[in-house]
Every structure is written in C-alpha cells, then in structure tokens.
C-alpha cells in the first residue's frame, strides 16, 4: 500500500521540474510535426495513443517492471542491455540513456536509493533507472508504472504544445484523454517479462530515425 509520502516522492521524481532534461526530447514528434502528420489535437492524441499502446510506452512499462524485480547487478545489466537493444534509433538510445543517467545521479544524491555503478556501463536507461530506484525505495510498482507512463505522455504533449503549436487547454485535453490508457497499460504489464517486449509503432520509430538529420530542429530527439 502506497503512503502519501511515497506518492509525493514519485510525483517529484516524475515531475517536469525533475532534472532529467525531458523538455529537450520529442521522441520523434518534431519530425512528424514538420512533415505535417500532426497538425491538430486529434492528430496528436492518435499518435500518442499508438506510441503508448504499441510502442515505447508499453515497452517502458515492461522494462520498468523488469528492473523493479531485479535482485542482482547481473539481472539489472541484462534488463538495461535489453532496453538499449529495443531502442529503434541512435537518438532513442541517447534519449533514454541521458535521462536515465540524470535521474540516477539525482536520486543517488538526495534519496540514496540508486547507484551509478550498478551496471557494467554505469549508465541505466530511463525506465530501468526508475524501476530500480522505486524498488530500492520500496514504492508500489503498479503506481510507479502508471505514474511513469503519465509523465511520458505529459512530456510529449508539452513538446507538441510548443511545436505544433497547440493551445495549453487543447494539450491538457489530450493528456486527460490518455490517462485511462496509461492506467490500462500499467495494469496489462503486470506479470510481463522481457520476452513480452514488442513494438509496432513503426511511424514513430521512423520519425525518430529521420530526426537525426532533421534541420532546423529545436528538440534533441
């Protein structure tokens, strides 16, 4: 059972104010916006629905839970290397590793629930870092997964509000529509293993690949 303190700490970890640099990444959204694929709030909602349901969102939920369940550095390293392997492009790898490193360093200093030296590479991918830290802090994994997915969606909505551009109210309407899906994915990833990782969000993956040479651009992915 999660306490109010646990929930507040998770809210802090996954807040836009937490120094992981999430504001700098669009997860390929910038490419889709520049190409005219995303022009409206409905376009954005449909795109993010697919990313959550069929792409990085669901996979991150699986990886977070797998990291949470690790009891040895070797197990954590296997999950982390798998997280790198399922990243569809160089920018996706940079995105997840840089955010994971920033998250790990901050939680290690303030809460002492994570350690940079837990893997051979000393770098944890973002969902792996969150799952590992949540386990050390003994936070509820179901709540952690749901809040992580909500933060993932929130960051991409924020990116689209700036890049489409969309109004703030439209952006919040899209995010509100995605809340039930975040909870559903968190529930459906209960009992999953690394063997359950998959992705059919092909347009999102291609957009992320094309972003590597996109000019001009304001986001790092």
CATH class term: Mainly Alpha
Strand content: under 5%
Helix percentage? 55-70%
Q: What is the CATH topology classification name?
A: Urease accessory protein UreF
Rg over C-alpha atoms, rounded to the nearest angstrom? 16 Å
N-end to C-end Cα span:
37 Å
Using the 3D structure, state the CATH architecture.
Orthogonal Bundle
**CATH fourth-tier homologous superfamily:** Urease accessory protein UreF
- The backbone outline, from C-alpha atoms, is globular
Count the domains.
1
Task: Summarize the main sheet.
Answer: none
Number of strands: 0
Give the helices and strands as they follow along the chain.
HHHHHHHHHH
Tally the helices. Answer: 10
Class of secondary structure makeup:
mainly alpha
Average of the residue pLDDT scores? 94
Point out poorly predicted stretches.
none
Describe it.
- The protein is mainly α.
- The chain has a single domain (23-197), classed as Urease accessory protein UreF (Orthogonal Bundle).
- The protein has 10 helices and no strands.
- It has helices at 4-13, 29-34, 41-54, 56-69, 73-85, 90-110, 126-136, 141-163, 168-188, 202-211.
- The termini are far apart.
Feature tags:
0% strand; Urease accessory protein UreF; 10 helices; globular; 221 residues; mainly alpha
Q: In summary, what is this structure?
A:
This protein is mainly alpha-helical and 221 residues long.
Question: How are the SSEs ordered, and which strands pair?
Answer:
Blueprint: H1 4-13, H2 29-34, H3 41-54, H4 56-69, H5 73-85, H6 90-110, H7 126-136, H8 141-163, H9 168-188, H10 202-211
Helix pairs in contact: 3-4, 3-9, 4-5, 4-7, 4-8, 6-7, 7-8, 8-9
